[in-house]
Amino acid sequence: MLSHASPRFDVARIQCAVIICFFLVGLSLGALPLFITKDLAADDTIVGLVIGSQFLASLLSRIFVGRLLQAGLRRCVLASLVGLMSYGLLLGISPYNSELAVPTLIFARVVQGVAVGTLATAAIMWAIDKLGESSTARVLSMTGISIYGAVACGAPAGILIFQYLGLPAVAGLIIALPIIPVVTLLRVSDIAPKTEQKTIGTRVFGKVLLPGSVLFLHGVGFVSIEAFVSLYFSQSGWPLVTWALSLFGVSFVLIRVSLGHLLQGSGLVRLAAASLSFQALGLTLLAVAPNQYWALLSTAIIGGSCSLTFPALGAIATGCCSTHERGTAMGYYSGFQDASYALTGPAIGLAINARGYGTGFFAAGICALLGLVLLSRVKR
């Protein structure tokens, strides 16, 4: 039986699914790098490969996610939650066969990538439908806060659970938690998204290529923190490792809440430029950090700098497009982020293996500066 609750209450239940989904993403980001390096004795290249495989799957899923959404948004969200439970099951069996552990983890991350990508897209569209098209910016901002707040809580929880109970306990939580939104969303009415007016894909891709390329370079720093900062703290012997990803997420949310109104203005290029500048500064400071307090401050700077970059560049990208092209444009634009996360994780891992963590973070800072150069070519 479907509910007759207010749209806001329905949206709150949809956001609950987003929060739980990305809390589980945070659990993985906290636990998996430690499991791979300590229990499997693998190097940072393997860490980057395993972490990046989720984002590669998210990128590839964009080929067919549009067709999936036509089956209904609630169905996609529920199927994605079941996919997350399957991911937890795969994660739970990986420690019991060391020879197949890495391939199992990569396959598990692929399952997670498809589930997370589909859930996030369907949940955003579902919430917008409940509140109306005029609420698009509000829904995107609210979802961003849910995502990074949940990751900020999940990452330290994943580290602590892994340290005291091991990876099977993390996997058990991943299997159990999605049951909550599955039950609550069964009473929220479903909807199939409206089809867009026909668009010419190559023309839309050309319009988003420049801001998308800047987003790709910005993503290098983001994935460097998500995949390697906990290992950096552990190798350096710094005990406040659980605070690193938390401060990243908390800083992200605080900047989005306090300065999010700037996204409604006309200075989007300047806003993106300032964000990239602070990202380069934070990554450089992290590369030369002499102690954990310096490193935590650097991580907070990076988290804050990442907060407004994606929506600012996204507004620039869609602003170049006609109304009926904007859905396609956002799909292409988001694909640049997925590609960055998928491809640069292993690359930064190689740099870290060759020259150390400082070199990896410094290389990510150089990428942010290159993004700043490209941004200067965007029309204001």
UniProtKB/TrEMBL annotation:
Record flagged with keyword Transmembrane helix: yes
Domain of life: Bacteria
Tagged with keyword Transmembrane helix: yes
InterPro entries: MFS, MFS_Exporter, MFS_trans_sf
Entry keywords, A to Z: Membrane, Transmembrane, Transmembrane helix
Protein name per the record: Major facilitator superfamily transporter
Chain segments annotated as transmembrane: 12-34, 46-65, 77-94, 106-128, 140-162, 168-188, 208-234, 240-259, 271-289, 295-318, 330-351, 357-375
Molecular function (Gene Ontology), one example: transmembrane transporter activity
Phylogenetic placement of the source organism: Bacteria, Pseudomonadati, Pseudomonadota, Gammaproteobacteria, Oceanospirillales
Gene3D superfamilies, sorted: MFS general substrate transporter like domains
